Amino acid sequence: MSDDHLLIDSLGNRFGRPAIESGWAAYFAMVPDYWIKIDRAMAEGAVVAFFGSAGGTYVPKEGVLKPENRWETPAAWLVTVRDGLVSQWRVYCDNEPIREKTRAERP
Question: What is the arithmetic mean of pLDDT over 79-105?
């Protein structure tokens, strides 16, 4: 990541460094097996578009990976590279599958 790296989530929220590092740490605690699968990539200059899916297993507060908490959703990413570093990572995906899992744990 570039020093001025910008992450833009699917709701349009923008995050710079160092918030990104702490945000990813919290996300990987919640979805420790998070993955992305790229089915197609297209590049034009310094911009690359990836298309595929994302998923993982939501871990509730008790910290147990349960098969029923797995989720997957179609996703796309638009990435800008500058001087060999990712300067912008934009995510386009529907977060409803993981939101459904987090709502299920609420009393």
Answer: 87
Chain centre to alpha carbon of residue 81: 18
Distance, in Å, from the CA atom of 47 to the CA atom of 98, rounded to the nearest integer, reads 28
We report the CATH number of the domain holding residue 74 as 3.10.450.50
Give the chain as a DSSP string. Answer: --TT-EEE-TT--EEETTHHHHHHHHHHHHSTT-EEEEEEEEEETTEEEEEEEEEEE---TT----GGGEEEEEEEEEEEEETTEEEEEEEEE--HHHHHHHHHT--
Condensed to tens digits (0 to 9), the pLDDT of residues 22-45 reads: 988 988 999 999 999 999 999 999
Which residue range is the domain that position 60 belongs to?
6-104
